[in-house]
Design a protein that fits this description.
The complex is a heterodimer of chains A (about 375) and B (about 525). Helix content of chain A is about 40%, strand content about 15%. The longest helix of chain A is centred in the first third of the chain and has 34 residues, at about 40-75. With about 375 residues, chain A is an alpha+beta fold. Chain A has helices spanning about 5-25, 40-75, 90-120, 160-165, 255-270, 280-295, 300, 320, 325-335, 350-360, 375-380, and strands at about 125-135, 135-145, 150-155, 180-185, 190-195, 200-205, 210-215, 220-225, 230-235, 250-255. In chain A, the strands form two sheets. In chain A, strands 3-2-1-5-8 form a five-stranded mixed beta sheet, with no helix packed on it. Chain B has about 525 residues and is mostly helical. In chain B, about 70% of the residues lie in helices and about 0% in strands. Classes of the chains: A alpha+beta (about 375), B mainly alpha (about 525).
Chain lengths: ~375, ~525
C-alpha cells in the first residue's frame, strides 16, 4: 500500500527540514530568515555560536536515533514476514545509553557556563542607562558616564492608520520609535531595568540582552555594541493590550557622533524650560493636551473619549472628567490601584495640566475648567 | 462509547441487581468507572474543540500583519483562555478519562476505589468550564494576562480574572480527588500476583502522575488564592509597594507549572509504552528502566521550575543550577526514546492507527525535546525566551506529545470499549492529516522565534509575514482534521465489524487477555490470576 512510500517521504523530508536550520550560516541571504540574526556584540556572538553548537549536536543525535528507527520501520515489518526477536532487556546497553548522554550534556553545559558568567558581569560600565517600562512606552535616564542627565520617553512611531490597515505599511512597521536610545560604539553600557506598572521586558536580540523590567525592583544587564548601526528590539513580556506596540530601537554611534548627540541634547535641555508658573490660555493647553492624550491615553480611552465598553471607561461625560478638578488630577497622577489605569507622574506638569484641561473640555465635556501647570506642581508637593 | 452500556444489552441481565438508570440520571448519578471515563473523554473533547476555535481565531488574526479580525484586548483574552482551556479542560481530563477506563481493567479490579468521589470529581468540571467560558461575557471580558496569570498584569483585570481563579480552584479540587482515587485504586486493588513491577506501564505512569498532581495542585491553589486576596482584599503578596514581590508569584506558579507539564506527558508515555510492544509483537525493552526513568523525570521536575524565568534577573548560581538540573532531564527522557526504539528493533511491526500515532509521537516529541535542550542553555534561552520558538517547543511536546498520545490510546482501546473496530482508513487519514498540518503549523514557528517574533502579540513586523501565513494555513488544516477523528469515533460507537476479545494480535494486558469486547460494565467481578 502507498502508505509505506508516504512514510518514507515524510521521514526523509523531515530529516532534511530540521537540519536546514543548521545550514543557515551567518549571512544576510535568504537563509537568515530561518536563523538568529547576525550578532552585534561579543555576548550575542557567543549566544549565536552556542545555539549552532547545540543544534548541530541535536541534529546528529536525531539522525542517529531516527535513522535507526526508520531502518527498523522499513525492514522489521510483519508484511515482509519479519519474525519478532525475543530480547527485552540488556543492562549493559541501558547503562551505556544513560552515561553517554551525560557526557554530551556536559559538553554543552561547559561553554554555556562561561557565557553565563560573562553575561551577568555588569561591573565597571562606561555608561549606565535606566530604562523604565510604562504601559506602553519606555522611559530612558542616562545615569552615569558621558551623557549623564539626559532623559526622554520613547514610544512607537508607526502611525495608527498603518496598524489599522488604513494606510500602506512602512518598511519599519512596528519597529520604529520617536526617540532612539543612543549609545557609543565599543563602550560597556549597563542597563538598569524597572517598571512603573506591570512587568515588561527590555530585549534587543542582536545585542544579546533580554531582561524583565519589574515594578518595584531594579534589575540589570549590559551590552557592548561591536559596530555602529540600528538595533531593534521589542517588549518581551506580556504587558497588556498594547504589548505588541512598544518597540525598542538602539542607535549605536561612533564616539565623535555620540559626543555630538550628547552636546545637542544638553543644549536642548539648557534652553529655558517652560515656566510652570506661567499662565496658559485655554487654546494653548487644549492644543498640547490633545497631543499628550493621543500619545498616552487614547490607546485605552480612545480618541473619541468613548473608551471600550466593559473594558476601558469612556471619559466623555464621565464622573471623573466632569466632576471636581482635584479628583481628576489625582487620577491622572496616581492612577487607580487594581485597575489598568496607570500613574502618569512621569509626565511633566505642563503635560498633565494640558491633558486634564483637554479632557475636561473635549468631546461633550464643557466644564470650561482651566488647569494651570502651577496647580499640578502644587498638587505634587 | 455511550451505546455500549445501553441498559438493554445482555450485560444488564447478568447484573440485574444494579443496572444503570436510564437517560440523563444514568450520567448524573453514575459511579461506574467506565461511564465516568466516558464523561471525562467527551467533556475533554468538547473543551478541545472550544480551545481549538480560540486557537483558530488567534491564527486568523495572525494570518496577516495589521489588526483585522479581533482587537488586541480580546486577542489577549483568547491566548489566555486557549491555554487554560487546553491544559485544564482538554488534556488533563482526557488522561483522567483514560485512567478511569483503563486502570481497573489493567490491574484486574472491578471499579475505582472511591466510586462516589469519582462521580464528584467529574461533575466539578462542567461548572468550572462554565465559569471559564462565561467569563468572556462579563464586563471587562475574560482574563487577558496569559495562562500564567502573572501579576501585576492580572491584578489589573476585571471580574473575568476572579472567575478564572475560582475555576482553577474547582479544577484543582477535581484533580486532587481524581488523583487520590487513582493512587488508592492502584495501590490496593491490583489482582493477586500483580506486583508493582508487573504493572503495565500505563498504570505506572499514572501512579507517578497522580502523586505529582497531589503535590502541586495545592501549590497552584495557593498562588491563585494570594492573587485573589491581592485583587480583592488589599493584601500585597505580589505588590512591591506593599512589601511583596511580583516575581514570587512566578516562582510559586512554576513550582506547580513544571511538574504540570509532566502531568500532561507521563500518561502519554504510558500509552505509547503499551502500544509499541503490541504492534511490534515483542516485549517492551527495558521495563524496569522505563519505571525508573519515569520516576526520575517526576522527581527532577520539582527542581527545574526557574528555567521558565531565566530573564527575571536571577543570580549566576541560580541560573547555573537550573540550567544543569534542566539538562539532566534529557537523560531519563533519552532512555525512554532509546527503549522504544529498541522495542521496535527486530520486532514484527504492523502500522495501524495506534502505532502510527505512537511513532508520530516519538518522532515529534523528540523534536520538542531537542528544542527543550536548546532552551535549557541559559545564554540561548535569553535570546529565545518569550518568542515563537518557545511556542513551537511546547506545542511539539503538548500537541504532538500529549495529544498524539491521546489519539493513539483512543484508537488502541476504542474496540475494547465499544466492541466494534473503528474504520482504519479514516483513522489513518486522521493521522496523516494531523501529522502534516501539525508540522506546517508549528515547524515554521521555530524560524519565527529565532528571527525574534515575540509571543502573545496580535500584530507583528513585516519580516514575519510569510511564516505566519503558512502557520495559519496549517492551523486550519489541523483543526479541521480533528473532525475526521470525531466522525471516526461516532461511526465506531454506532457499529462496525465486531472486535475480537484480544483485539490486537500482540496485546498482553488484562483487558485484552481476560475480558470480552466490549468490556463488561463491572470489569472484574472476581480478580483474574496474574502469572
Amino acid at each position: 500500500m502507498g502508505s509505506k512510500v508516504t512514510a518514507i517521504l515524510v521521514w526523509v523530508s523531515t530529516l532534511i527540514l530540521y537540519p536546514s536550520m543548521a545550514a543557515a550560516e551567518r549571512t544576510d541571504g535568504i537563509l537568515s530568515t530561518v536563523n538568529l540574526p547576525a550578532a552585534g556584540s561579543q555576548i550575542a556572538t557567543e549566544m549565536y555560536d552556542l545555539h549552532m553548537y547545540v543544534l548541530y549536536i541535536c541534529v546528529v543525535i536525531f539522525i542517529g536515533v531516527f535513522g535507526t528507527m526508520l531502518y527498523s520501520v522499513i525492514v522489521h515489518r510483519k508484511s515482509k514476514g519479519f519474525k519478532a526477536a525475543n530480547f527485552h532487556h540488556s543492562t549493559t546497553v541501558e547503562i551505556i545509553w544513560t552515561i553517554i548522554p551525560f557526557f554530551i550534556l556536559f559538553g554543552m553545559a561547559f561553554p554555556a557556563t562561561q557565557t553565563i558568567i560573562d553575561m551577568k558581569d555588569t561591573s565597571t560600565p562606561d555608561i549606565t542607562i535606566k530604562a523604565t517600562g510604562y504601559q506602553w512606552q519606555w522611559g530612558y535616564d542616562y545615569l552615569q558616564g558621558e551623557g549623564e542627565g539626559i532623559k526622554f520617553l520613547s514610544k512607537i512611531s508607526t502611525p495608527r492608520e498603518q496598524i489599522r490597515n488604513e494606510a500602506p505599511k512602512g518598511e519599519n512597521y512596528l519597529r520604529e520609535v520617536d526617540n532612539n536610545v543612543v549609545v557609543p560604539v565599543g563602550k560597556k553600557v549597563r542597563m538598569l531595568l524597572t517598571s512603573n506598572d506591570v512587568i515588561h521586558a527590555w530585549s534587543v536580540q542582536q545585542l544579546g540582552v533580554k531582561q524583565d523590567a519589574i515594578p518595584g525592583f531594579i534589575r540589570d544587564a549590559w551590552f557592548k555594541a561591536d559596530k555602529p548601526g540600528i538595533y531593534k528590539g521589542v517588549c518581551s513580556e506580556l504587558c497588556g493590550k498594547e504589548h505588541a506596540f512598544m518597540p525598542i530601537v538602539v542607535e549605536v554611534l561612533a564616539q565623535e557622533e555620540y559626543s555630538k548627540w550628547v552636546a545637542g541634547q544638553k543644549q536642548e535641555s539648557a534652553e529655558p524650560a517652560v515656566d510652570v508658573n506661567k499662565e496658559f490660555t485655554m487654546d494653548e493647553l487644549k492644543a498640547t493636551g490633545e497631543k499628550v492624550y493621543a500619545g498616552n491615553c487614547a490607546a485605552c480611552h480612545q480618541a473619541n473619549g468613548k473608551g471600550i465598553s466593559g473594558t476601558f471607561p469612556g471619559l466623555d461625560g464621565s464622573k471623573i472628567a466632569v466632576g471636581p478638578k482635584a479628583d481628576h488630577i489625582k487620577m491622572v497622577l496616581n492612577g487607580k490601584a487594581g485597575s489598568a489605569m496607570a500613574a502618569f507622574k512621569h509626565l511633566s506638569d505642563v503635560d498633565i495640566a494640558a491633558v486634564v484641561t483637554y479632557e475636561r473640555n473635549a468631546w461633550g465635556n464643557t466644564t470650561g475648567d482651566l488647569v494651570q501647570p502651577s496647580e499640578i506642581k502644587a498638587f505634587r508637593n | 462509547m455511550a451505546a455500549v452500556h445501553h441498559p438493554d444489552n445482555e450485560l444488564g441481565h447478568e447484573h440485574e441487581h444494579h443496572g444503570p438508570p436510564a437517560g440523563i440520571m444514568r450520567w448524573l448519578t453514575t459511579t461506574n468507572h467506565k461511564d465516568i471515563g466516558t464523561l471525562y473523554l467527551w467533556f475533554s473533547f468538547a473543551m478541545f474543540l472550544t480551545g481549538g476555535v480560540m486557537a483558530l481565531t488567534i491564527r486568523s488574526e495572525l494570518f496577516q500583519p495589521g489588526l483585522q479580525i479581533v482587537e488586541p484586548e480580546f486577542f489577549n483574552q483568547l491566548t489566555t483562555l486557549h491555554g487554560l482551556v487546553m491544559v485544564f479542560g482538554a488534556i488533563m481530563p482526557a488522561f483522567v478519562g483514560f485512567a478511569n477506563w483503563q486502570i481497573p481493567m489493567m490491574i484486574g479490579a472491578p471499579d475505582m476505589a472511591f466510586a462516589r468521589m469519582n462521580n464528584w470529581s467529574f461533575w466539578l468540571l462542567p461548572p468550572a468550564a462554565l465559569l471559564l467560558i462565561s467569563s468572556f461575557f462579563v464586563p471587562g471580558g475574560a482574563a487577558a494576562g496569559g495562562w500564567t496569570l502573572y501579576p501585576p498584569l492580572s491584578i489589573q483585570m476585571g471580574m473575568g480574572m476572579d472567575m478564572t481563579i475560582f475555576a482553577i480552584h474547582i479544577l484543582g479540587a477535581s484533580s486532587i480527588m481524581g488523583s487520590i482515587n487513582i493512587v488508592t485504586t492502584i495501590l490496593n486493588m491490583r489482582a493477586p500476583g500483580m506486583t508493582m513491577m508487573k504493572m503495565p506501564l500505563f498504570v505506572w505512569t499514572w501512579l507517578i502522575t497522580a502523586y505529582l498532581l497531589l503535590a502541586v495542585m495545592p501549590v497552584l491553589a495557593g498562588a491563585v488564592t494570594m492573587l485573589l486576596t491581592d485583587r480583592q482584599f488589599g493584601t500585597n503578596f505580589f505588590n512591591a509597594a506593599g512589601g511583596g514581590d511580583p516575581v514570587m508569584f512566578q516562582h510559586i506558579f512554576w513550582f506547580f507549572g513544571h511538574p504540570e507539564v509532566y502531568i500532561m506527558i507521563l500518561p502519554a508515555f504510558g500509552i505509547v509504552s503499551q502500544i509499541i510492544p503490541t504492534f511490534a509483537r515483542k516485549k517492551l525493552f527495558g521495563y524496569s528502566s522505563m519505571v525508573y526513568a519515569t520516576s526520575s523525570i517526576a522527581i527532577l521536575s520539582f527542581v527545574v521550575w526557574a528555567h521558565h524565568m531565566f530573564t527575571v534577573g536571577m543570580p549566576v548560581t541560580a541560573q547555573l543550577f537550573f540550567m544543569y538540573a534542566t539538562m539532566l532531564i534529557a537523560i531519563p527522557t533519552g532512555v525512554k526514546v532509546f527503549n522504544w526504539t529498541a522495542t521496535m528493533w527486530r520486532g514484527s511491526m504492523t502500522f495501524e492507527a495506534p502505532m502510527l500515532f505512537s511513532i508520530g509521537f516519538i518522532f515529534l516529541f523528540t523534536i520538542g525535546g531537542f528544542s527543550g535542550i536548546v532552551l535549557a542553555i541559559v545564554p540561548v534561552d535569553i535570546v529565545l525566551q518569550e518568542t515563537y520558538y518557545v511556542i513551537a517547543h511546547f506545542h511539539y511536546v503538548l500537541v504532538s506529545g500529549s495529544l498524539f498520545g491521546l489519539f493513539a490510546g483512543t484508537y488502541y482501546w476504542l474496540p475494547k470499549w465499544t466492541g466494534n473496530m473503528y474504520d482504519e482508513g479514516l483513522a489513518k487519514t486522521h493521522f496523516w492529516c494531523s501529522m502534516i498540518f501539525f508540522n506546517i503549523t508549528f515547524f515554521v514557528q521555530h524560524f519565527l522565534g529565532l528571527a525574534g517574533m515575540p509571543r502573545r502579540v496580535p500584530d507583528y513586523a513585516l519580516q514575519f509575514a510569510d511564516f505566519n501565513m503558512i502557520s495559519s494555513i496549517g492551523a486550519f488544516g489541523f483543526g479541521f482534521s480533528q473532525l475526521i477523528f470525531l466522525y471516526c469515533i461516532i461511526k465506531c460507537i454506532r457499529g462496525g465489524p465486531k472486535a475480537t476479545d484480544e483485539v490486537w494480535e500482540g496485546a498482553d494486558t488484562l483487558e485484552f487477555t481476560d475480558l470480552p469486547s466490549p468490556a463488561p460494565y463491572h470489569s472484574f467481578e472476581t480478580p483474574p490470576k496474574v502469572k
